[in-house]
């Protein structure tokens, strides 16, 4: 049975590992292989890392989650391209516009 302290230490290690990979500029697969960590473990811990950051940002109300999907190919069936806080955008706009909108 794992102790809570060992779990916290592992979490701290993996979160620093996730941050290190992000700043390294290396692909996940090669970064993990170089450090002897299975890429599946890396993705598991990345998800936990993102959840932790999302929770901490939501606590102070300063973060809005926005999912940007790849460009749509062909006509937009529903007529609505994006909706944010009740504001509807009916045509494709650049991602930079969406970032300014929520910023």
Summarize model confidence as the mean pLDDT: 75
Question: Which shape, going by the Cα principal axes?
Answer: elongated
What level of helicity do the residues show?
55-70%
The tally of helices reads 4
Gyration radius, rounded: 19 Å
Class by alpha and beta content: mainly alpha
- Taken together, the total number of domains comes to 2
User: Tally of extended strands?
Assistant: 2
- Contiguous uncertain segments of 5+ residues: none
Protein name: Transposase
Organism: Chitinophaga sancti
Could you characterize the architecture of this molecule?
- This protein is mainly alpha-helical.
- It is built from four helices and two strands.
- It has helices at residues 4-24, 28-35, 39-59, 95-102; strands spanning 82-84, 87-89.
- A two-stranded antiparallel ribbon has the order 1-2.
- α1 crosses α3 (39-59).
- The longest helix has 21 residues, at 4-24.
- It is elongated, with a radius of gyration of 19 Å.
- The model has no long low-confidence stretch (mean pLDDT 75).
Provide a quick synopsis of the model.
The protein has 4 helices and 2 strands; from the N terminus they run H-H-H-E-E-H. Helix content is 56%, strand content 6%.
Fold blueprint:
Layout: H1 4-24, H2 28-35, H3 39-59, E1 82-84, E2 87-89, H4 95-102
Antiparallel strand pairs: 1-2
Helix pairs in contact: 1-3
Protein name: Transposase
Can you tag this structure with a few keywords?
103 residues; 4 helices; two-stranded antiparallel ribbon; 56% helix; single chain; mainly alpha; 6% strand
């Amino acid at each position: 049975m794992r102790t809570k302290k060992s779990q916290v230490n592992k979490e701290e290690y993996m979160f620093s590992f996730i941050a290190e990979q992000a700043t390294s500029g290396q692909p996940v697969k090669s970064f993990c292989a170089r450090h002897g960590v299975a890429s599946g473990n890396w993705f598991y811990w990345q998800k936990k890392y993102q959840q932790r950051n999302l929770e901490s940002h939501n606590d102070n109300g300063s973060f809005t989650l926005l999912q940007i999907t790849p460009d749509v190919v062909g006509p937009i069936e529903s007529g609505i391209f994006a909706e944010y806080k009740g504001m509807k955008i009916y045509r494709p706009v650049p991602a930079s516009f969406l970032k300014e909108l929520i910023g």
